[in-house]
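In response to reviewer comment 3 from the previous cycle, which asked for concrete evidence that the modeling workflow produces usable outputs, we include below a single protein chain processed end to end. The sequence was submitted unchanged, and the resulting structure tokens are shown without manual editing.
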Amino acid sequence: MLHALSHGPVTAPLLVACHGVTDSAASLADFAARLAGRFHVVAVDSLSHGLSPRWDGAGDPLAACLRALTATLAPLVATHGPAILYGHSMGGALVSRLAAEHPHWVRGVIAEDPAWLTPEQEEHFAAWGPAEAARLAAFDPRAARAHLQQAYPTWPARDLPGWLAAKAQVDLALVRAGRVGYRAPWDSWGADLAVPTVFVTSDTPDCLLGPAGLARLAATGNPHLRGELLPGARHCVRRENPEAFAARIEPYLAAWSRTDGS
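The workflow returned the following structure tokens.
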């Protein structure tokens, strides 16, 4: 079972939140705080992240992450009923894939710039993994905090302690593997998603999905898939513009949190 942080009343609709690579459940503090008044928010430390168990080094690390997340979600759904799933980057890839495999567990999915990768992006992350692991091995939290506040001034202050701690907690073996998302052609199984799924992305160069990815999703003809573009944000769309992100996903959360899940 993965480690998780729970927020809000256990009688409220279940919302499970999954972070991106090298982050943790604690780095979703602002997202959880905004929604804990009306959802039972369970923020999960992915495999090899935060306080969760470590990847054993065998096989595909992303497949291992999905198995661990699935095993963690199963008892939550059995106790609380179907969940709304939210995930960023790697977390967005994982929750959308989980929803494809277990649609009856899920009311809806918010995938924030998920790691549904082009071949070029996959090559980039394969090279990024060893370099990022080396960088994190020499991580200086004070310098990182100063840089973060200068380079990303709109990021919620509540997220920063968890973000910084996560860099010291993450398993560098998993980072080194460079497997952060699903390979193209991801739309071959994305077209079969049978639950409402909203993809939130932006139009800056470091976004993974972007307008081109939204166009590919639209081309699947799947009526369950919706795209939302927040212009001008970088890859961490929610943190770049927390108010706009919250406003954009609110209609979906309101609809999915009805008692009947419709």
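The chain has a mean pLDDT of 96. We consider this sufficient to address the reviewer's concern, and the full set will be provided in the supplementary archive.
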